[in-house]
Amino acid sequence: MRASMIAGALLAASLANVSVVLAEGDLTTRPVELPALVLGSEESDYSMSQHRYELETGQAYKLGIISTGRKEYAIRAPEFFASIFLRKVEAGDMEIKAVSLTELEFEQEGEAEIYFVPVKPGDFEFRSAGLEGKGMVGTFSVR
């Protein structure tokens, strides 16, 4: 009897120190539309309109990526792509449903939209492959 009382007290003490972590997002609402990531501009072939995105786990997002066609741009974010639930990618008249992404490559002017839900917190780099030295890097910061 005494052993079970001690075990019960230990369990109660352990549970008192457990904090519940819940996602802030609400998947029943429309995705939050993020500012588009525009690659290249009239001022510089190597510009990116955004270098940081602040996101929350459990929130649905829509991110448009627009290439001006001034260079070939290959957007890579392997750690980020591995830490999201990818709902779909829309490009042109196509809707692509895949489990994950490796990169989005634009060989000319074009646009794609990514619909996703972050599931893992952290800071994740995105970059245009081969153009990092020109400043084409940024961060997805997921809380």
TrEMBL record:
UniProt signal peptide: 1-23
Domain of life from the UniProt record: Bacteria
Keyword annotations of the record: Signal
Name of this chain's protein: Copper-binding protein
UniProt organism field: Marinobacterium nitratireducens
Lineage: Bacteria, Pseudomonadati, Pseudomonadota, Gammaproteobacteria, Oceanospirillales
